[in-house]
Give the backbone structure.
Amino acid sequence: MTVENTAHEARTPTEIDKIAEEWVTTLAELNPAVATWIGIPGKLDEYEDLSPAGHYAFVDAGRTVLAKLATATEIDDVDWVTRTDLRHEIELELESSDAGMWMRDVNVIASPAQSIRDILDLMPTETEGNWSDISGRLSNLPGAVDGYIETLRLGITKGITPAKRQVHEVIQQAKKHGAGDGFFHNFTGSAQLAHQQPVPDSLAADLAKNAGVAAGAYDKLARFLENELLPAGQDNDSVGRELYALNSRRFLGATIDLDETYEWGIEELARMTEEQESIAHEIMAGASVHEAIAVLDADPARKLTGTKALQEWMQQLSDKAVEALSKSHFDIPEPVKRLECMIAPTQEGGIYYTSPSDDFSRAGRMWWSVPAGVTEFNTWRETTTVYHEGVPGHHLQIGQAVFNRAKLNTYRRQLAGTSGHAEGWALYAERLMQDLGYLDDAGDRLGMLDGQRMRAARVVLDIGVHLGKPRLDGTGKWDFDYAFEFMAKNVNMNEPFVRFEVNRYFGWPGQAPSYKVGQRIWEQIRDEYKSREGADFSIKTFHRKALDIGGVGLDTLKAALLK
């Protein structure tokens, strides 16, 4: 097997391409949010069936695809990557299903409690038809919530429930959405068409009515969580080694030694801390990291006030990076040069990226969910975040795959990939920007290292909590209070951000380490590739070949790039 041809010549679809395309169609049928996400035709006013029946339908569809892949003829290395990665993804989904994880799917960031609402952020709003789809989806939202509740009730009867800590936090989120002044009423109340034209009165009335319907469904969800699931929840936050190992493989697309990775995380954290302390001295002679941060935070030239200023600054920095890098270090296709920096309509905390639609009619977007009460932002902390989410980070990586439609089927362009591949690349990109001279300012470098230190700390915390490791101070096992104290010492964030982050790690085991571990694996693959190529090695060629493969598991990436 050889690395895929990187040219963008048209490719005749194969049997395996057809199977992958059929899988995308099946997913969009089972979960209409998939069609919204990738911008293809679908039932845009509906939701997936989140009941046990809906889950079993997904499982049956997955088994059908595995059977087809087993007998399909492989034409070339593009087929090899598609079959290898699609098979691996579905097998992991089925393994997770057998472990009952779908019956305990409640966490603060990436469970149906969030995704039911989140998909509305990606729905177009330019036309009456768009808003009609939104109104219809809002009217169908209670059915999605009812199915979700049915699944969680099944988990209760089987003794498969989430940790009480996660349930408690999601109750608060659901109550916010269920309030009369919550998201749904604010969202529909500001409805307008392109060019700020008002929606027709009849449609506005439907939107207002269905906003109430959707809010009522979230109020129902909050009551169920509080009255039924919370009492049945697990007191122990840890998922244990077996489930954690499964989650780690899902998020990385690779199998790692968890104990070795934990010890490496401790060493990496110490290295990041030492590097930060060195840069602090550049900012102010003899300064500690905290003293250097105080100097940077007091600098009015590095401060932004209000979300409007934050959004404008992100957009300007992103546009500047795209323009410069496209001339010197990357071949960035025209559609990929467009990245929209957005303030998210929620206040949950977190920064994230959403991919462009398949035809680029919706651009790739960087979203910032700013917690309530947070009004000031420091550019030195966030310069590297823009590179992480934009170019050369997620947007270049994912946008390049979407653009590569001449070679990659829809599954490969839009749905394939793992957190370890995507987030590992984004951290790799941060370091790359330092190497290219974009973080020569000591404050911006300190901000980059602040993020890298946080990601190293997450490796230690996440594995420590869920595998029941001893605390680093030797006083017992990891628990929430110790994890919060540990994280607060290793990041420079305000209390709401830190609390949200720690709750995220406790409820989404294996995901947080995939950033730093993914970076580690990306760097190992690059170094092995460089050693193989010898004097012919070109970093630009390596990046092009790697990104042209699209999103895959990291084991697949390694096999595709290294003979």
User: Anything to note?
Assistant: Residues 1-7 have pLDDT under 50 and may be disordered. Residues 171 and 220 are 10 Å apart (CA to CA). The radius of gyration is 23 Å.
